[in-house]
Amino acid sequence: MASIGALKFFLYLLPCLLNYxxxxxxxxxxxxxxxxxxxxxxxxxxxxxxYDYIIVGGGTAGCPLAATLSKKFxxxxxxxxxxxxxxxxxxFLRNFHITLADTSPTSASQYFISTDGVxxxxxxxxxxxxxINAGFYTRANPRFIxxxxxxxxxxxxxxxxxxxxxxxxxxxxxxxxxxxxxLLDAGVSPFNGFTYDHKYGTKVGGTIFDxxxxxxxxxxxxxxxxxxKLTVLVHATxxxxxxxTTGKKPKAIGxxxxxxxxxxHQAFLGTGRQSEVIVSSGAIGTPQLLxxxxxxxxxxxxxxxxxxxLHNEFVGxxxxxxxxxxIFVPSKRPVQQSLIETVGITNLGVYIETSCGFGQSxxxxxxxxxxxxxxxxxxxxxxxxxxxxxxxxAFVKSKKDIPIEAFRGGxxxxxxxxxxxxxxxxxxxxxxxxxxxxxxxxxxxxxxxKRCVEGIRLAIKVVQSQHVTNxxxxxxxxxxxxxxxxxxxxxxxxxxxANDTKSxxxxxxxxxxxxxxxxxxxxxxxxxxxxxKVLGVDRLRVVDGSTFSESPGTNPQATVMxxxxxxxLKILRDRLGKLGDI
Length: 582
Fold this sequence. Notes:
alpha/beta, FAD/NAD(P)-binding domain, 15 helices, 27% helix, FAD/NAD-bd_sf
């Protein structure tokens, strides 16, 4: 059985790991529903001025923000990636992991590794993170809404606007049912049924995948905009923000961007005092762009010969990523692919989620998909260009004893909520298309490590529950054996230790990965004010997760999309009063 499994493994693994056929973002055939989406090179000279709002980044927040503002004002969105609509790797749930495995320059996902040694990804496509994530949709904890000072009435108007357009009820697979029941047996109660709300206990949340497994991203929210006032340019990479520094305070007046051919363009705001450049490039892209534009620590900017527009020591500081650790669950029963549908919201400061079936895709079996993979172990840490046939063959030989059960099954995910450990983002060079250096300092604070241990213990209880063992048709395993399998399945660049399966703390440190919920770098009160306007600069605002000091709820995408709508409505009402109602 093992030798057959190894042979199948090799046949499917080889083309993927040798990176022969990287997936691209497809031909740009615009849907008739989005006539305002064009290539970056299509901007006419006569069009490049007079915008009321220039939004840098057509991502999870930028798309709803643009759609809302365009109801009353002329809006330009500049997105560095392509469109998601005709990219099967983005669109279909079954291909979720292929985009994350694609490290080519045209991938919808831009791969990066934090200095901690954890593999990570950022969106490089219209729709941003909502085009490459696991699709789970759940609202923020009400405490988060109060903490950030948002208007609850407007929040409760903005969430449903998103939900009516792109959110669905999951199919709810048998695997998810087994884990749900295992969570309840482990004491994560009560069962709150299907709900978008953040409630302690076990629940089923929403998803942006419909019942046919088709993804609905934030990009679809653009259809709610006014096509006569909205222009969206794709493959338009903003190089820097342009400022007028002749007055008492620097004032944003436009941006410089490159199109798909590498040609440089400028786009300018109109002369109106309330016109703004709004940066919605995410927790990596936004602080990086501010730094490249001359806003940040003076010493760092001068090191790269970047003219200092405004000294602010806090740009790029306070970066955090919710550490995630996993328990691998082998299965003798083939499982249907499913992403996050069930979540256990505990009072321990951890969230428990699950996914399964992504070792069985015929199109992409055993590809590294950015989280972890029992099937490929550490081979994914070899850069694609160094993946020789010899390396692959040596790996297959070393794994010949892997049981067939390892090619099935799934993972129980334990995520630490609101990490106290923080790091920073720093420039490596002045190329906006390359990743900056990002450090998250996972588990540098002992409270995070304590919660990780509690989460892993809870995850083990779930895996050992009769509901899960009955479904997987596998015997109940000891905690040590589960940890051992999970360490082997884990993918990161952190050196492993002999006591990984003896010490829960060491297991947490050595097997930490990400669920892409990183945030910070432009915190309120340090880089932006409570209205998200950049401190010390006129006509510049930030609207995205870089302003967050914690990730909202179990999964942030619902709140980031809602934030785009919320801030759009708030800007309209602040600027137009009752005339701003839409």
